[in-house]
Structure formats: C-alpha cells, structure tokens
Amino acid sequence: MINLAAEAQEKEVPRRSESGDIKGRLVEFAWMKQEGYATETIRSSSGSLRALIARGVALTDPMTVKDALAREQKWSGNRRRNVINA
Hey, where are the domains in the chain? Predict the structure, then answer.
C-alpha cells in the first residue's frame, strides 16, 4: 500500500521566509533609488522580471530570454522594450 501523505510531504517545495523576501526587495529598492530610478520604474522592472521568471526563463541565460520574447505574441513593442531594459 502506498502512503500518499508521506509522498506529498517529500515533494513540497521549500518556501522562502517572509523576512528574507522582504529584505531582498528592500535592498533592490534601495539600490535602484540610490541610482536615481523612480518608484514606478522600479515597480515596472520588478514586474517584467517576475513575468519572465513565471514563463520559466533563466535570467542568467540570454538565449532563454530571447526565446521567451520571441514566443510572447501578446506583448506590444513597448512592453518588449521594457522587459529588455529590465
């Protein structure tokens, strides 16, 4: 007999702590603010990067980013430019 509860526990993805996530966001925000970026620019850039990550893109590999941009048909030219800039 298979123990499904034990199997489900093994497959759970560990979650980041709330404080670690907040700390990272504060550091990112502080750095971009120090560089003179507006709050809206910071929000937009973060959203663009989250959209790429949600599509399974490895941000450290330029080819996966290019592939994701080529596959995304619904994005306007301006949205693509913003994602590239982010």
Answer: 19-85
Q: Whole-angstrom Cα distance, residue 34 to residue 53?
A: 25
* Phi, psi of 2, rounded to the nearest 5 degrees: -90, 135
Determine contact, residues 45/86, Cβ cutoff 8 Å: yes
> What's the length of the chain?
86
> How many C-beta atoms lie closer than 10 Å to residue 83's C-beta?
21
Task: Give 73-83 pLDDT, tens digit per residue.
Answer: 898 999 999 88
Contacts of 56 (CB under 8 A, 6+ apart): 68
Cβ-contact 32, 41 below 8 angstroms: yes
Mean pLDDT value of segment 6-22: 48
Average pLDDT score over the chain? 75
Output the pTM of the full model. 0.61
